[in-house]
Write a structure and sequence with these properties.
Blueprint: H1 3-20, E1 23-26, E2 30-34, E3 46-49, H2 58-69, E4 77-82, H3 85-97, E5 101-110, E6 121-125, H4 127-139, H5 147-164, E7 167-173, E8 176-186, E9 189-197, H6 206-220, E10 225-231, H7 236-242, E11 245-257
Parallel strand pairs: 3-4, 9-10
Antiparallel strand pairs: 1-2, 2-3, 4-11, 5-10, 5-11, 6-7, 7-8, 8-9
Helix pairs in contact: 4-5
Length: 260
């Protein structure tokens, strides 16, 4: 993967966060992207580190995030994102010692034809139609521990629809929604995100179908670079490779949950 593709994707991500954030604050090592109306959504309230990190240690980054995020009521977490793979790997052990969770994402670019997949009925739709199946999916997630958390994770999709033109792709089985993902296009770059299948419908190729439908939609909207993000330590990345996505680069995330 070329450096140009990496820079285009990161530029997309910055534009995405700038459009969706309700508030942006400068920090000692980067910027905090915040949406105070959705405090339980970690991905909407975090510090994106983008300044030189030579000589900078985990405790300084943790203190900076604690200062910025701790200044606002309602946050029960701290989250830091680091794009520099080298420094992320260097700091991972220290963050673990500080009691933070370490997470590595792999950015994958759609570059090849997919392996043959079963035929699935997929509809493209809006948030109003997709909302109920998204809510059902959220109920099955282990990290959703209250009605408020579920509501915020579902309702933020309306922000995505309004701010970045999100569209939703739902796989249907016997007329019932069974899997859902979303996609966005900014300029000539498209992203497929939040791929989920209801537990009772897994193993039928539904995730493959919605990912490919979403990727096709981004291209129809002018994207010539289509990517998604996967957990580098989890199995879905292997599925995405079978769908024609290649590893491009990795980023690191560090999260601490605040006891309440």
């Amino acid at each position: 993967m070329t450096d140009d593709a990496r820079e285009r994707i990161l530029a997309f991500e910055r534009q995405f966060e700038e459009r969706c954030a309700g508030r942006i604050e400068e920090t000692s090592f980067g910027r905090a992207y915040l949406h105070l109306g959705f405090p339980f959504r970690y991905s909407s309230n975090f510090v994106w580190v983008d300044r030189p990190l030579d000589g900078v240690e985990a405790d300084a980054l943790a203190a900076d995030a604690d200062r910025v995020l701790g200044a606002h009521d309602g946050f029960r977490h701290r989250k830091i994102q680091i794009d520099d793979e080298r420094h992320g790997a260097r700091l991972a052990g220290s963050f673990l010692e500080l009691g933070w969770r370490v997470h590595r994402d792999v950015f994958m670019v759609h570059a090849r034809e997919p392996e043959p997949r079963p035929e699935v009925d997929v509809i493209e739709t809006d948030f109003v139609t997709a909302g109920p199946v998204i809510a059902e999916v959220m109920q099955e997630q282990p990290y959703v521990d209250s009605d408020d958390v579920q509501r915020q994770l579902v309702d933020f999709r309306e922000v995505l629809e309004r701010q970045v033109g999100a569209r939703f792709f739902v796989a249907m089985v016997d007329g019932e929604p069974a899997a859902v993902c979303e996609a966005y296009v900014l300029g000539d770059v498209g992203q497929v995100e939040d791929v989920n299948t209801l537990e009772g419908f897994r193993g039928r190729g539904l995730a493959s179908a919605i990912v490919l439908a979403a990727a096709d939609w981004t291209r129809s909207r002018g994207a010539d670079l289509v990517f998604l993000i996967a957990d580098d330590d989890d199995w879905p990345k292997d599925l995405y490779r079978r769908l024609g996505f290649d590893d491009a680069f990795r980023t690191w995330g560090f999260t601490r949950v605040i006891d309440t």
